[in-house]
Amino acid sequence: MSQTNRRKTLILKKKTDLLISIGIFIFALGLRIINLGQFLTADESRAWLGWSKEFIQAITEGRFGEIIFSFSPGVTIMWSGSFGLYLAYIFNSGQAVSYRDFLQTLPFDPIDPNIIFWFRLPIVVFSACCIAVIYQLANLLLGRKIALVGAVLLTLDPLLIGMNRVLGHDGLTAAFMAVSSLAIMTFYICQTEKPSYKYLILSAIFAGLAFITKLTSAYLLPFIGLLAIITIVYYKRYRQVGVYIQDGILWTLIAALTIFLLWPALWTQPLQTLQKVFSWLGAVADQPHNRGSFFLGEPIPDPGIWFYWIATYFRLTAITTVGLLLGCAYLIFGRDAKPLHQTTSQPANRKLVIWLLLLFIIFFIIFLSTSDKKQDRYIVPILPAVNLIAATGYVWITKKLKRQKWQYAALAAAIILQAIITLNSAPYYLSHYNLLAGGSRTAPNTILVGWGEGLDLAANYLNSLPGAEKLKVSSWYHSTFEPYFKGQAVERVNDEKISRSAKPFLVSNYVVLYVNQIQRQMPTPGIIQFYQSFEPEHIVTINGINYAFIYPSPAIGHTLSGKVRLVGQAELLGYNVLNEQKQPISKLPADSTATIQLYWEWQGKAPDELIGLNLVDYDGRVWGEGNLLGSYSPVAFKNWAEGAIVHDDFVLDLLPGTPPGDYYLKAWIDRPTTGERVGDFPLLLEDVHIVVVRPASPPSVSNLSLSEQLDLPLVKGDITLLGLGESEQMVKPWQSGKERDLSLYWQANRAINQNYPIMLALVDSGGIIRASWSNLPTG
Fold first, then answer.
1. Distance between CA 190 and CA 203 in Å, rounded?
2. Could you report the per-residue pLDDT of 409-419, keeping only the tens digit for each?
3. Beta strands 587-589 and 689-693: pairing type?
4. What is the pLDDT averaged over residues 234-250?
5. Residue 775, H or E segment
6. What DSSP string runs through 127-148?
7. Which end of the chain is least crowded, N or C, by CB within 10 Å?
8. What b-and-e string marks burial along 114-145, b requiring 16 or more CB atoms within 10 Å of the CB?
9. Which residues of 21-44 are buried (b: 16+ CB within 10 A; e: fewer)?
10. What is the reported pLDDT for 64?
11. How does 693-703 read in b/e, with b if 16+ C-beta sit within 10 Å?
12. Given pLDDT bands bounded at 50, 70 and 90, which one contains residue 724?
């Protein structure tokens, strides 16, 4: 072939590859942009969305040293979110206000669902661009057919699509690491006599982007070092070691410059910023996830070294799993074409590239496993390598078919099956789990499931109920649920959040339990057991997995502040005051009988050690005794889990003649076997305050517990001393230095318009006062 024809062929190839790249970009963008604002994930609303707002505000105000919010450090995420904010400003506000005013008035707690699309759009666009670049690099390393199949499989990978549609660092980190590693492979493997440094520069820039996105991308440093050693040995470039070192220094300087230029905090406080980030990283990496994890059917802080291997299996598709196995088979049984390293117009040694991609996967999983903090989404950076190996496997095995049209048909079938599998989970792409691993049937019993998807659908159901605007609902991942719910979303009560306490659940009309909340038994196994003992009113199911369970909740009217507990026994949570018709009341008539529903959390109390309840005044005098009707739990005592929720019902009978005023509940635990009291619960008066109001009519004197009826008129007949109560106090011998309680019953014969203090005196036979007490009636 003449030089001219060779040049024309090469130009045509480049144009074709450019058109393919554009097509891949459009395809990837279209898949990721549809229903982009459908739901929120747990880390977006109160982390990346809020941090992006603070990020751009700090930049516009010149506060560069304050631009550090996460150990990740997630700088590219905040740049992306900031750009998305500007898009929201342009398309939503009509620029009727200044950008600064728009930022200051933008709601974030809860976030406006209408701007979620704009927040995520820049990440979606950039991720689609990276897939197109991955195709171009894979084309040089593996050839057009493998690169095209690999790029399409990658575009259709449900986990990658899901992570690309979220304002978070895992999706972008995967894209940056893939471009960086493939570019440096191209630089080392596809060398001509004069190396093309554009690939080294591209690799360094994307490595810098990866570093300021998520620090796990530091894995690139040892991997590129390993890559350099392998290529030196494989191609016997021992005399070029010095050149490799120079290239490595150049690569490092370009990556460092990229980091510096894009990280504003480094402009003014470089050392302090890096020290702070690495300090945070050290503290977080050595600790399990603060809410625990779930693995092989058990809630567990750290799933251990096998977690990522099993999580990877569950997170691949059936198509990529088979392709990955075929790619590994190709390494053993396949024949490679003659290595062509002299020109970048043809693929390099495919087996070497596949071995390097396989090493990238294996060592990255080992690298992740060294940290105690584990999440299945952290494996996303291996997906480009996995899909390229899978594409190699499919291209290799289909070449064994005799006719080329059959080969293309087989490859098309694999891609179509991948598309069907992926689109079946749209727009909740994160809900897909490998069919070969059991899919939605086995995933919830094996690994942690759910990142907020489905809570939008739970909110939609609750919004359809009558009076939804007045409903109080408590949901796990509160910030993910609240933007979609038009009623009151309850996250905390008295500064006690749903992640730690049952109180927000119990004060609500409905509770939404989430799949990974149930997996991890949070906040306590007893709370999960309490609600799961009833039939859920509604279940949100996505892709065969039950994500959210909606239960009616007691909606108790009064909660208690702090930890009102007797250690090793029980903790009081709250109570209802009900009238005889079992309706909640705020004030208690003096002549009435009320039911007190006392909710408490079991922490070891024996079933025969009963909770007691009284109504007392400020000085502790008893004005009403609670008679226990029974303890109620939907679960038998022998099956109670830690933190089981129980409510005791008491009939509260006020003493006849109880004056109107302020009273308080008192609670304790009795131990009947010894006749002793275990202890009194440390109740705050403001938490158990009950107002007693005037009775409908005065009580009959015959109903009073009088030991002696006196009927003595006083104050010109305005008041009558009816008699003495508590006869046992009069019978017992009196002792010097001891206090004695007495009860006097009075009756006002007409409206009283002034106070009449009472004086009681103990007088001896000579008329000398030996003891006295003076106060207003009822103290």
1. 14
2. 999 999 999 99
3. parallel
4. 93
5. strand 769-775
6. HHHHHHHHHHHHHHHH-HHHHH
7. N
8. ebbbbbbbbbbbbbbbbbbbbbbbbbbbbbbb
9. beebbebbbebbeeebbbbbbbbb
10. 74
11. eebeeebebee
12. confident
**Per-residue pLDDT band at 285 (split at 50, 70, 90):** low
| Mean pLDDT along residues 314-332 | 97
Total residues belonging to the chain: 779
What does the block give as tokens for 460? 């939609």
Whole-number pLDDT of residue 117 = 93
**279-283, 437-441, 466-470: least confidently modelled range:** 279-283
HEC assignment per residue over 518-560: HHHCCCCHHHHHHHHCCCCCEEEEECCEEEEEEEECCCCCEEE
Question: Cα 266 from chain centroid?
Answer: 31
Is-contact 415 320, C-beta < 8 A? no
Residue 402: CA count within 13 A, CB half-sphere: 0
Span 671-723, pLDDT tens digits: 888 888 999 999 999 999 999 998 878 778 877 878 888 889 988 888 998 88
Contact present, 642 and 552 (Cβ < 8 Å): no
What residues form DSSP beta bridges with 654?
624
Under a CB-based contact definition with an 8 Å cutoff, are residues 537 and 471 in contact?
no
24, 132 in Cβ contact below 8 A? yes
Q: Please tell me the predicted confidence (pLDDT) of residue 344.
A: 43
Amino acid letter for position 85:
L
Structure tokens at 1: 């072939």
Average pLDDT over all residues of the chain? 89
Q: Which amino acid is at 159?
A: L
CA 341, CA 8: separation in Å to the nearest integer? Answer: 21
Distance CA 384, CA 164 (A): 13
pLDDT at 723: 87
What's the N-to-C CA distance of the chain in angstroms? 114
Report helix, strand or coil for 723: strand
DSSP 731-760: HSPP-TT-----EEEEEESS---S---EEE
Bridge partners of 758? Answer: 775
Q: Report cis status (omega within 30 of 0) of the bond before 672.
A: no
SS (H, E, C) 490-523: CCEECCEECCCCCHHHHCCCEEEEEHHHHHHCCC
How many whole angstroms separate alpha carbon 585 and alpha carbon 587? 6
| 425 neighbors 449 (Cβ within 8 angstroms) | no
List, for residues 53-107, the tens digit of each pLDDT value. 888 888 888 787 666 666 678 899 999 999 998 898 888 766 678 888 888 888 7
DSSP bridge partners of 624: 615, 654
Q: Alpha-carbon distance 76 to 259, whole Å? A: 10
Backbone angles phi, psi at 702, to 5 degrees: -65, -20
Q: What is the pTM of this model?
A: 0.89
Name the pLDDT band for 200 (thresholds 50, 70, 90): very high
Instruction: Using the predicted structure, report yes or no on whether residue 191 has a pLDDT greater than 80.
Output: no
Phi, psi of 773 (to 5 degrees): -150, 135
Report the sign of the C-alpha dihedral through residues 254, 258, 264, 265, in that order: negative
